[in-house]
Design brief:
Layout lengths: L7 E5 L3 H13 L3 E5 L2 H10 L4 E4 L8 H10 L6 E5 L4 H10 L2 E4 L4 H18 L15 E3 L2 E4 L4 E4 L3 E4 L2 H12 L4 E3 H8 L8 H17 L7 E4 L3 E4 L13
Parallel strand pairs: 1-2, 1-3, 3-4, 4-5
Antiparallel strand pairs: 6-7, 7-8, 8-9, 10-12, 11-12
C-alpha cells in the first residue's frame, strides 16, 4: 500500500540550537525538515528545491523574514508560510498575517506549532484542489480552440459531430497557455514554467511529446493545428486566423 509522502518543512531560524530542536520535534511528528540559518540560504534552496511549508523567523542576520517572502514572490516562488518569531508587535503580526498564512510568537508549545502546521498544509492543499496544472483550473470557463470546444471542468474536448474525448491535465494546460498567448512567439521554457511550474525538472523533449499527443488527437478527429507552428530553435507560435490576442504576454 502506498504511503503518504512526508511534508518537507523549511525552517529559517538563526538560533542554531532552537532550529535543531524544532527540526527534531517536527520529524518526530512525521515531517521532513531542512534548516537554513540565513535568508540567502533559504532563497537559494527554494530556487532549486520544493518545500511544502516555510517556517520563518522575522529577525534574521542578513535580512528580515518579510523581505525574504517578498523576494520569493517576486521570483514566482509560492509557498505556505508561518512566521515563528519573538516579535510581538501588533504591526508585525498584521503584516505577517497579510503576506503569510499564520503568525506564532515565541515562546510556543510544540503541539500547537505542529497543529498549526497541519492546518496550514490542509488549507494549502484545498486551495490547490481546483488546479489542473499551474495555469489551468477546473473552474475555468469553456473555450473554443481550433474548431474544438475545451471544457476544463470535465477535462473534456468536444470535436465537430458531438464527439467527446478526454483531455489529459498537461494537454489542457498547454492548450490553455496557447489560447491565452495568441500571436506571439513563446519559448518552450515559458510553456514548461506555466504548465508544470517554475521549479519543474521537465525537458523540452518531454514537452514536445505532449504537443505531439495534442496534434494527433486533433488529427484523429478531422481537425488540424496549422495555426500552431514551431519556431526553429525558439519554441512555438499560435496564430488562429492570423489574429493576435490583444493582451498576449510576450515570453
Amino acid at each position: 500500500m502506498a504511503t503518504t509522502p512526508k511534508p518537507l518543512i523549511l525552517i529559517v531560524e538563526d538560533e542554531e540550537e532552537l532550529a535543531k530542536l524544532i527540526a527534531e520535534q517536527l520529524e518526530e511528528a512525521g515531517m521532513q525538515t531542512q534548516v537554513c540559518n540565513r535568508c540567502a540560504h533559504a532563497e537559494r534552496f527554494l530556487k532549486h528545491n520544493f518545500a511544502n511549508l516555510l517556517l520563518l523567523d522575522i529577525n534574521l542576520p542578513d535580512q528580515s523574514g518579510f523581505q525574504l517572502l517578498e523576494e520569493l514572490k517576486k521570483n514566482d516562488i509560492s509557498i505556505p508560510t508561518i512566521f515563528l518569531t519573538a516579535n510581538t508587535m501588533e504591526t508585525s503580526k498584521v503584516r505577517g498575517l497579510e503576506i503569510g498564512d499564520d503568525y506564532i510568537t515565541k515562546p510556543f508549545s510544540y503541539p500547537e506549532l505542529i497543529a498549526r502546521i497541519h492546518a496550514v498544509l490542509r488549507r494549502a492543499e484545498s486551495v490547490g484542489d481546483s488546479n489542473v496544472t499551474k495555469n489551468a483550473k477546473i473552474s475555468d470557463q469553456p473555450f473554443e480552440f481550433c474548431g474544438a470546444k475545451i471544457t476544463p471542468e470535465r477535462l473534456e474536448i468536444e470535436f465537430p459531430g458531438n464527439i467527446l474525448a478526454k483531455l489529459g491535465r498537461k494537454e489542457l494546460g498547454i492548450i490553455s497557455y496557447l489560447n491565452a498567448n495568441r500571436g506571439v512567439v513563446i519559448t518552450r521554457k515559458a510553456i514548461i514554467h506555466s504548465v508544470w511550474g517554475i521549479h519543474a525538472d521537465v525537458k523540452s523533449r518531454s514537452l514536445d511529446q505532449y504537443i505531439v499527443k495534442v496534434r494527433e488527437l486533433f488529427r484523429a478527429n478531422g481537425l488540424n493545428l496549422d495555426a500552431f507552428r514551431t519556431v526553429h530553435s525558439i519554441g512555438y507560435i499560435f496564430e488562429p486566423d492570423g489574429a493576435a490576442a490583444p493582451d498576449a504576454a510576450k515570453n
